[in-house]
Every structure is written in C-alpha cells, then in structure tokens.
Amino acid sequence: MFTTLDKQHLPWKLLLDADPDKEKIQMYVDTGSGFVWQVADEIKGVIVYNNRETEYEIMNVAVDPSEQGRGIGRQLLLHTIKHLREGKNAQNKIIIRTGSVSSAALHLYKKVGFVEVSRDIDYFVKNYPEPIYENGELLRDQVTLELMI
C-alpha cells in the first residue's frame, strides 16, 4: 500500500542503502516529498523526489533487500510518475541519477521509460569521502536519465 512519506519517521535503513550520505539525504528529504510502500506496519520501499523549477528529480529509490525483485521499486516509480504527471506545472521532465555499475537500477529505470542523457565521470570518487562498491565494483561514474512528462 502506498502512503505519503512521513518526514518525522523516515526509513533511514532503506534510505541509507541507496545513498550512504546521511546529511545529503536529510537535505533532499527536507525540501522534497515522497512515498513509501508498506505491508502491515512495515515499510518495504521508499521513493523521494524534489520539485525543481523546470523538472522533478527522483533523489532516492530503495527497497528492502528481502523484498527486491518483487516489483516494489517499479510500483513506486510508476506511482510517483503518475502523481508527478498529474501535478505538473512548468516541469516537463523527471530526472534520476544512479551509479554506472547499478545494473539492476539502470535496467528498472529504462524499463519504465527513462533514457540515459549523460554521465558524470568520477562523480562518486570526487563527492563521497569513502569509496562505494556495488556488485563488487568501485562506483565511479554517475548516470543521469530522464523521462519526458
């Protein structure tokens, strides 16, 4: 079941799974909105987005590791895309950024309609104090994808 993200009771474990920088998360949660996927009283997935002048940016998508592969991330994305399309003003696209070695995330984003538009070489090496590894590989480059709405 989808519910609006409660900023007073954030699912920190999930948010930190997708982004290891707690200060950055707090900044984009403070200025953003989002949804959670709940089963009973347990949050199994979360999505956070920010409303920019001409676009929306999805800042964080995370699903409980024990629930991955069951379509929760896809449902969160589709629900958010529908919500943003219905509420758009000057925004004409949704952007999302992820690591270049995040193959499952890249596949999911492309599957729901996002298209890769750029790569920021060494973004994670330059902007995070500790190395980040995904799928056994050092995460270096950031991929930006967009979906026109």
Automatic annotation (TrEMBL):
It holds the Pfam family Acetyltransf_1. Keywords: Acyltransferase, Transferase. SUPFAM superfamilies: Acyl-CoA N-acyltransferases (Nat) (SSF55729). Coiled coil: none annotated. Residues 1-135 form the N-acetyltransferase domain. One of its GO terms (molecular function) is acyltransferase activity, transferring groups other than amino-acyl groups. This is GNAT family N-acetyltransferase.
